[in-house]
Amino acid sequence: MRLRRTAIALLLTLTGLSPLVVASPVSATQDCSFVSSGQVPIMDMGSQTYQGFPGGLYPGASDTRPAAYTAAGVSIAQNDVLPRDANGQVDAVNGKVALISIGMSNTSLEFTAFQQAVAGYANRNPHLVLVNGAQPGVDATGWDSPTATAWSVLAQRLQAAGISPLQVQAVWLKEQFLGDNLGAFPAGAQNLQSTLADIARIARSKYPNLQLGYVASRIYTYDPTRSAGAYQQGFAVKWLIQQQINGDPSLSYGPGGVAPWLSWGPYMWADGTTPRSDGLTWLCSDFQSDGVHPAATGQQKVSHMLFNQFTTDPTSISWFNK
Q1: Model confidence over 95-139: pLDDT tens digits?
Q2: In terms of pTM, does the model score above 0.85?
Q3: What's the per-residue H, E or C state across the chain?
């Protein structure tokens, strides 16, 4: 894992993105006592279970995306995610590939930091356009209808960026219910899973060329009243992706499909100051005074994870990089 972190740090240095960030000051009124929830990151559970449910990011308690499923995503990326004009026609000269974000306030803050990082990336695909559609105060229920105001706001932002609906081809989705209030497990996480599936289908209906979706987990929270829901949100994402991998027709992808191909993008929860297997921790200084929204260092951590994923994942390198 040390070699992996060193490689990531070298990648960020070569692209002008320093892996070193200045720690955000901790407010004198900030409660930094909740340094651990005692839960195990889903990616580190191995043979363990959580309330009777296995971990692992993918089926079979595995953290490795199934080879055949990855191959399907790569095929879509290479053959269908292409520079397109406003009418959706392939245009290798002036066409655009739009990557949008959908989510809440945390998503908006984190995607903004990611946009800033990508702006300085020398190997960026010149056709790539990032549009931040995430909106503070809009939880998962705020996207769970094709007539919801959130979609109108996103449409306005696309128009302002000079992007038509037919040029939207990838999405970063990170959503949760208000206040991390999922209720009893597993029913609450299953309810969120269903809502995330709705959002994916609505997005595909509004953006017919939307081919790829990367779904992210919540980061840690220093608010103990929200801790269980923040952790369990990861199971909603896990089960959503597993649902598609298992061939559920309500999440079919590709030509004639009703949803984009879905993958983790990425899993970001770690148990506070306890390092997970890849070394990720969430310090109190990574959060604003509410212990929920990421401060500058927290935003940079997410940005670095997103940057590493999109520049190395075989389902994104063909359209993200030059």
Answers
A1: 999 999 999 999 999 999 999 999 999 999 999 999 999 999 999
A2: yes
A3: CHHHHHHHHHHHHHCCCCCCCCCCCCCCCCCCCCCCCCCCCHHHCCCCEECCEECCCEHHHECCCCHHHHHHHHHHHHHCCCCECCCCCECCCCCEEEEEEEECHHHHHHHHHHHHHHHCCCCECCCEEEEECCCCCCCHHHHCCCCCHHHHHHHHHHHHCCCCHHHEEEEEEECCCHHHCCCCCCHHHHHHHHHHHHHHHHHHHHCCCCCEEEECCCCCCCCHHHHHHHHHHHHHHHHHHHHHHCCCHHHCCCCCCCCCEEEECCCCCCCCCCCCCCCCCCCHHHECCCCCCECHHHHHHHHHHHHHHHHHCCCCHHHHEC
